[in-house]
Amino acid sequence: MRTIAFVTQKGGAGKSTIASSLAVTAHEAGERVFIIDLDPQQSLVKWSQTRGEADVPVEAVSPNKLPNVLATLEKKGVTLCIIDTAGAETATTKAAMKAADLCIIPSRPNVFDIWASEQTRMSLRELNKEFVFLLNQCPPAQQSARVEEGMKALEAMGGLISPLVAARVDYQEAARYGYGVSEINPHGLAADEMRKLWSSIKKRMARGKAAATRNAA
Ligand SMILES: Nc1ncnc2c1ncn2[C@@H]1O[C@H](COP(=O)(O)OP(=O)(O)O)[C@@H](O)[C@H]1O
Ligand SMILES: [Mg+2]
């Protein structure tokens, strides 16, 4: 089982939105996905209740139980666990960071998000964890100077995962009705972004695993 956590101090960056759509895309690609919602706001627990299906289960877990819950999920044959966290750096977020094979830090292309990302990055560096930035809610269609600057800043801070994710109504509509973007508009641009993102994450995790094996040898 591989575990990824969406983390950043900044609320509104898109952790829950991308976590839910990515979970659906990974499920469609054949993964057995389980979402752990560590945010007291329980956005994804509510998303799951709206969804009303058990195909992508979501559970709120208390952080001290996280290692045990993950061990149980692995035994049950879950292949991908996605952890969503609150937009604040708490002991709970740290527990998610520690448990994850890869942490994803979503950031909008604006200075406040990028500053917050920098702080999250420092925590991840202290914990010696693998992480990547994800630029979310970019203006669609054209590559603006703001996006270019955001890309450069995040690349310099440790690496940006592809693709850029644009601000699209599909993300908001899907989340609202308990779906992923690939379900409400399978041939849409947002669905395409999520398939590309899943493919990039898989490659990135394979790289991390290879490095860990080398280091252990
Ligand atoms: N790519 C996107 N396109 C359009 N709206 C988005 C996108 N990502 C997030 N949003 C919107 O931004 C807001 C914050 O997203 P959310 O996932 O709740 O952030 P977080 O979980 O990081 O606090 C929500 O209203 C959501 O619909
Ligand atoms: Mg959230």
Brief digest:
The chain is 51% helix and 13% strand. With 217 residues, it is an alpha/beta fold. It has a six-stranded parallel β-sheet with strand order 3-2-4-1-5-6, sandwiched between helices.
Characterise this structure.
- This protein has one domain (2-212): 3-Layer(aba) Sandwich (Rossmann fold).
- A six-stranded parallel sheet has the order 3-2-4-1-5-6, sandwiched between helices.
- It is globular and about 45 Å long.
- The relative contact order is 0.19.
- 51% of the residues lie in helices and 13% in strands.
- Helix 1 (15-28) packs across helix 9.
- By secondary structure, the chain is of the alpha/beta class.
- Helix 2 (43-51) links the parallel strand 2 and strand 3 (58-60).
- It is built from nine helices and six strands.
- It binds adenosine-5'-diphosphate (ADP) and magnesium ion.
- The site of magnesium ion has 4 residues, from helix 1.
Characteristic key phrases:
binds magnesium ion, 6 strands, 51% helix, 217 residues, Rossmann fold, alpha/beta, 9 helices, globular, binds adenosine-5'-diphosphate
Look at the helices and sheets and give the structural class: alpha/beta
Q: What letter string, H or E per element, gives the SSE order?
A: EHEHEHEHEHEHHHH
Biggest sheet descriptor: 6 strands, parallel
CATH classification, class level: Alpha Beta
**Hetero ligands:** adenosine-5'-diphosphate, magnesium ion
What is the multimeric organization of the chains shown?
Answer: single chain
Number of domains: 1
Q: What is the CATH fold-level name?
A: Rossmann fold
Shape: globular
Rg over CA atoms, rounded to whole Å, is 16 Å
- Please identify which CATH superfamily we are dealing with: P-loop containing nucleotide triphosphate hydrolases
CATH architecture: 3-Layer(aba) Sandwich
Separation of the first and last Cα atoms: 21 Å
Count the helices. How many?
9
Low-pLDDT windows of residues: none
Extended strand count: 6
